[in-house]
Amino acid sequence: MPRKKDLVNQALSRRDLLKAGALGTVGMATAGSVLALPGLGQEPSGAAQGQASHHDMMTVGNIAPGSFDPTAFLTHFDTGRRSTLPSGQVLREYELIAEDREIEVAPGVFYPAWTYNGQVPGPTIRCTEGDRIRVRFTNRGSHSHSIHFHGMHPSNMDGAFEPVHPGQSYVYEFNAEPFGLHLYHCHTVPIKRHIHKGLYGTFIVDPKSGRPPAREMVMVMNGFDTNFDNENEVYAVNSVAFHYQKNPIRIPRGELVRLYVVNVTEFDLLNSFHIHGNLFRLYRTGTDLNRYEWTDVVALCQGERAILEFTYNHPGPFMFHAHQSEFAELGWSGVFLVEAPHV
Amino acid sequence: MSNIQMPLPPETPLKPVVPRSAVPPKAGLPLWVKGLGPLVLLAILVAVFVKLGPVGVFQQGFPPVEELTIERIRLPAHGEMEVQVVNGGPEPVTVAQVMVDDANWVHRLDGGRTIERLERRTITIPYPWVEGEPHVITLVTSTGLTFTKDVAVATLSPSVDPRYLTTFALLGVYAGVIPVFIGLLWLPFVRAIDRRWIDFFLSLTMGLLVFLGADALVEALETSGLVAGAYQGSALVLFGLLGTPLVLGALGHWRSGMRQERTPLQVAGLIALGIGLHNLGEGLAIGASYATGEIALGTFLVIGFLLHNTTEGLGIVTPLADQRPRFGSLVLLGALAGVPTVLGAWLGGFTYSPVWTTLFFSIGVGAIIAVVYELFRLFKRRAGAGITAPLNAIGFMVGMVIMYGTGLLVPA
Prior knowledge:
The complex is a heterodimer. In chain A, strand 3 (90-106) and strand 4 (109-116) form a beta hairpin. Chain A has helices spanning 4-9, 14-30, 70-74, 191-196, 243-246, 325-329; strands at residues 77-78, 81-84, 90-106, 109-116, 124-128, 132-139, 148-149, 169-175, 180-185, 200-206, 215-224, 234-237, 249-252, 256-263, 270-275, 280-284, 293-295, 297-301, 305-311, 316-321, 333-339. Chain A is mainly β. Chain B is an alpha+beta fold. Chain B is built from 10 helices and 7 strands. Chain B has a 4-stranded antiparallel sheet, with no helix packed on it. The longest helix of chain B has 30 residues, at 195-224. At the A-B interface, helix 2 and strand 4 of A face strand 3, strand 6, strand 7, helix 2 and helix 4 of B.
């Protein structure tokens, strides 16, 4: 989030000019012609300088209790109201409501979001390959919205050309295919604003054969442009800066962990996911059951997603964060607390 | 012509002129009630609004735009930053988070996170800043707005101790005191030249003063942009610009009664005062730049100041060409013009504030306006050909060109 603009916008002042003059001066200084004045000497760099720890690079305070809880969100999957159609196909029905809501994206920092079901990210929709999906969408927001699901479906179920105006409803219905990790988001123009205001969520289609049992979690990498200058001030997984650093995610040693990681970050070309002290098996888009790579960093562009599987064999705290340090220091950092099983 | 309504000439009496004092006071309310009545009504209305809100005007559904101004960033120790912030906006502002170089950072903000209107607060950040490199500090408010200020070159901020007092004093002496006194040494020269050339040098003085005035005005306007909104930077400029010549004029009247003429020594004193006030602002800027590590006082810069400000001394002694001033008077004149640079350097170095800097610069401009006006009157009295005589016009231009040329050496 470089704010060069701000720097450039500052009026060219006397001090800037003096600074320019000082450049000449520095040149002379190397020639040894600086007047010997007290207070001129520069301290040797590094000597006696204050050093910081990870505890310093942090937001101050906590978000208000009762607001959106990223820890609960991690493992909350909406599998819909399940029934069986006469054809024998499983029908899953979901309800999504768009509404305006102010959310707390960092302690004390409130953001005027547009949400699905009052939360950012929206609920994680989960089903099995081949299920019939029926999503009743109601727009209670102040602007037109839609839901655009990634995956395969008919044109009129795509959400791109049918904006749902405030007060109106629309039913999206299609077969869930292919299996994998997908996402959904609003596709109403201006799309950039509709996405960065918070209208997105995860859409998981499980393979019919299922995946091996694991501790599963959803992590949506997002950012918030709180001052609306088209650059993010806050970065996070699941919306709240540093939440999982302040509230580490506990995982038992030796247990398989499966992360569903989706990148919806607006404005930045890429976001990335990195774990410490371990490597993960990477399944890009989750559409292939064979692992793609064994690594510890994956970069995803907006809309890209990946399933990560790993097991920790060493107990203790391990960081996970964007490997863009800037994002990490603006909130996209967390900690896995690997616990030895009680004997 | 005939259909244009011309105002009647004032000497045409329409009705007998009655002196104001002769109008009999109307019966009824006493004078103080008439004077204070509107104020009392205003107070009642304000009280009603404070209690009930603006009746009939709907509240906006969103808060007004917040405005925080970071006035100064100090680096009092390694690993520590101090941000001085003032709320110049219409409503209280809550500082939710602080970022340094695009990283959230822990910090201390004593007395609650909400800064009231016109309240000044200090935020302390334990941050391992890097000597000689730039840093950026951003305050994030509860509504997500950001307020940013950069540290151009990180270096320890001076504290008021003998070492820095000496540093800033020397800075001021080099930039202001020495050059002015050297300039005063032109007195024997201006005494020896003939009248035509004295006029030339007086014009030259005016030229360089006008240049300094314009320079200070630009500075005042620029720093006024950094002043927190509620303090109305442009109004501060106006105060200095118009207030100073008015005060100097009134002082002149008070000193010399209703006598219109000032003695040459008085004119020289006024010039010295004007230059001194200008140099106060200049010292302030130099001190502040030095304190924030934006200049290093190298040979080049000192030579520049010497050349640039020496001409100021010439300006002071030129009106004294026909005089035999005492040595003490000359020292006083030089001190009046030069020493404020030292004061300015102290002020700027230790307690830089955009409000005071704006005010001092505009006072400098106002003083120069007063001085140039005095010089014009001096010209009139000398019964020369005036400023537009070819030689004098050239002198005026030369004055400005000298300032411009030496200004190239020191962009200050």
